[in-house]
Amino acid sequence: MHRPDYPGDSVMDIKKYIGTPYKPHGRTLEEGLDCYGLALLIFRERGIKLPDLPYLDTETATNRRVMGSLEATIPNMPLEKPEPFCVIEFTVLGEPSHIGIYLEHGEFIHASRHTGVVIDRLYRWSKRVKGYYRVAA
Question: Is residue 5 included in any domain, yes or no?
Answer without folding.
Answer: no
